[in-house]
């Protein structure tokens, strides 16, 4: 069943007085919940590693500033890395999923670059920030042997040269 974009205000202001929001979860119900929102205060998203298989995404790891999160899901299959330029942010995410697992993710950046992970199959989604100027700040979802579901936390970019503070 195709899920629609769901935006839920989560109340806490993360940077420069703007309210953060969440879109997702896209995918299935397997695995264990994870959240990387605690990394938001370290800095902006600067890179991602995603492990892919023929039909599924296995795991994700995100670099916030200079600090890598733990791997959520499994670190097996083909590793693909996306590195962002200084000041570049993710402004849109498209993806696909079967009834139980995420099959593809395509990240579009503020510089117009796109990064595709996996192979599109199943239902699709489009996740956008709720307000102009908002960017991807963190990811959360469900993972185990695969990346079962993923959601996106949007908010204001950190001030240049400084991480966000809670």
Automatic annotation (TrEMBL):
State the UniProt keywords alphabetically: Lectin, Signal
UniProt-recorded Gene Ontology molecular function terms: carbohydrate binding
Q: Which InterPro entries match?
A: Jacalin-like_lectin_dom (IPR001229), Jacalin-like_lectin_dom_sf (IPR036404), PolyBind_ProtTraffic (IPR052321)
Q: Does the keyword ATP-binding apply?
A: no
Residues annotated as signal peptide = 1-17
Q: Which residues form the Jacalin-type lectin domain?
A: 20-156
What the entry lists under Pfam families is as follows: Jacalin
Keyword Signal applies = yes
User: In this entry, which stretches build a coiled coil?
Assistant: none
Listed name of the protein:
Zymogen granule membrane protein 16-like
Question: What is the originating organism of this protein?
Answer: Terrapene triunguis (Three-toed box turtle)
Q: What gene name is given for the protein in this entry?
A: LOC113405940
